[in-house]
From TrEMBL:
Protein's gene: rimI
Gene Ontology terms: cellular component: ribosome
Family: Belongs to the acetyltransferase family. RimI subfamily.
A molecular-function term among this protein's GO annotations: protein-N-terminal-alanine acetyltransferase activity
Enzyme class at the top of the EC tree: transferase
UniProt xrefs under Gene3D superfamilies: 3.40.630.30
Keyword tags: Acyltransferase, Cytoplasm, Ribonucleoprotein, Ribosomal protein, Transferase
Origin species: Actinokineospora soli
Name the record gives this protein: Ribosomal protein S18-alanine N-acetyltransferase
EC number: 2.3.1.266
Length: 156
């Protein structure tokens, strides 16, 4: 099995929405139009592929002036049939490399009961800095806000 990452293709947005409905059942999963809007805004989105099958996706927004840039992980999802194989880790590392290229502090929200995701983020330098009560709707599940400080590039 060879997993490759590449910029998310518009042709994959229906598959993203399909995976959202599976991964975030009971919440308000993103639609194909929501993913299209993210791409239209110019945010950084990646797909993870086996052959031409999209098995995961992740997105990052970067904003602010160069001296005070920050990034936000908007989404990260992996097809349940492909979880626990390092694909989420691969996608996260690529998002973080994009943020690191501009020395951005990175923020994200994660359900307080998603132990696997919290462990992944913690292993990549994120710490909890806040609690958002009833953040996820319609379930009313809480979310932690997590942050990873900007990595400062060493001068050459």
């Amino acid at each position: 099995m060879t997993v490759r990452t590449a910029p998310l293709r518009r042709a994959d947005l229906a598959r993203c929405a399909e995976l959202e409905r599976v991964l975030f059942a009971g919440e308000d999963p993103w639609s194909e139009a929501a993913f299209a809007s993210e791409l239209d805004w110019g945010h950084f989105y990646l797909g993870a592929y086996v052959d031409d099958l999209l098995i995961g996706y992740a997105g990052l927004a970067v904003a602010g002036p160069p001296e005070d840039v920050e990034a936000s992980v908007h989404t990260l999802g992996v097809d349940p049939a492909w979880q626990r194989r390092g694909i989420g880790r691969l996608l996260l590392r690529e998002l973080l490399a994009e943020a690191d290229a501009v020395a951005a502090t990175v923020y994200l929200e994660v359900r307080t009961d998603n132990d696997a995701a919290i462990a992944l983020y913690t292993a990549h330098g994120f710490t909890r800095v806040g609690l958002r009560k009833r953040y996820y709707q319609p379930s009313g599940a809480d979310a932690y806000t997590m942050v990873r400080p900007a990595l400062v590039k060493e001068p050459k």
